[in-house]
Amino acid sequence: MRLVISAACVLVLFSCAAAYDPLDPNGNVTIKWDVVSWTPDGYVAVVTMSNFQMFRHIMNPGWTLSWTWAKKEVIWSMVGAQTTEQGDCSKFKGNVPHCCKKTPTVVDLLPGVPYNQQFSNCCKGGVVAAWGQDPSAAVSSFQVSIGLAGTSNKTVKLPKNFTLLGPGPGYTCGPAKVVPSTVFLTPDKRRKTQALMTWNVTCTYSQFLARKNPGCCVSLSSFYNETITPCPSCACGCQNRRNCVKSDSKRINMVGIHTPKKDNEPLLQCTHHMCPIRVHWHVKLNYKDYWRVKVAVTNFNYRMNYSLWTLAVQHPNLNNVTQVFSFDYKPLLPYESINDTGMFYGMKYFNDLLMEAGPTGNVQSEILLQKDKDTFTLKQGWAFPRKVYFNGEECMLPPPDTYPILPNSAPLNLLNFPKFIFTMLVMLAVL
After folding, report:
1. Which residue, of 103, 112, 217, 240, has the fewest CB within 10 Å?
2. Which residues of 69-194 form beta strands (DSSP E)?
3. Any signal peptide, and if so, which residues (predicted)?
């Protein structure tokens, strides 16, 4: 009986913590429905998806949203998005709805659609930036006209069973909840209008639900040790080893080999770690008041270009970042009293696109950090990161006992060397 109770407690704790990220404790995707007008048999609503995650964005091929209607609702029309299937609308004569499915699946429109099909913050192929990277691009929205539904606040039934793919699994959505109506400001900012009814759906992300293995790994090196600590073997699982390609293989030059597949199956370069992304942290130089780190991100996937990529790092000395070269940097403050986490991302039109595997499939930068003499040390792996995230996925770090260590032959304190020579000369003079 105790074993059963213990197992149940572990499952409960695991399920509660699965969607909690210690570096982004408040991160979520909020889906807001604003009823803006009533129709003879339903309503018109504006659906807004806001990505409040600091360093996890929704990348190509974009988001997919679905839900289950509470009654027998249909979608008469949509602007800024579309359903993937129309369903059975045979009972309608004349005016045929856009979708008659009980559980519709909605996707964003692609860039370049006609203006009469566009809506504000739409038509980006479902790609939504992280809030910490670009709040203005962290929103996606569309307009939907619903029929066979309620026509007042009392008769409208909220949709159920929301599901968000971004683009794969990992998000868990809660139930829709009625909230105070959204207030809108007119373009001239002289008048406020109010939604007739508003409800929210909150979706949180769990890496445990998204994938069995990590999607990236970390390797380490330093100026004081020739040893390079590689990514752990099979860090991202070795199930793709049968389908990997050597860097000198003729297969890479085949037509269509770089085209992404619908299920996003990767084509990886054969490595011992079998990860699509490797982050390398190199302790480059040690000055009197500063120290310098070089960071390189390498793409080993021949079928994926990473746009809007982000790199989140936790390290105690990120509270004293002096300069970051060739990356943009923003400190993250998940806990206001602790400033040990930062986010790096590419400069627009320069290196914000991490190309597929190959000669150009990497981005790199250097970081200059000011020392805190009370805490700074090169001993016991202090100079290496505690956690690393790429595109919101936590990367696997090497075991601590494999980190580059200070050579045993190094003097304990080079500043005491002249004093040591002076002492020896005095001793020789006395003798």
Report:
1. 112
2. 74-79, 81-83, 105-108, 139-147, 160-165, 171-173, 177-179, 183-185, 192-194
3. 1-19
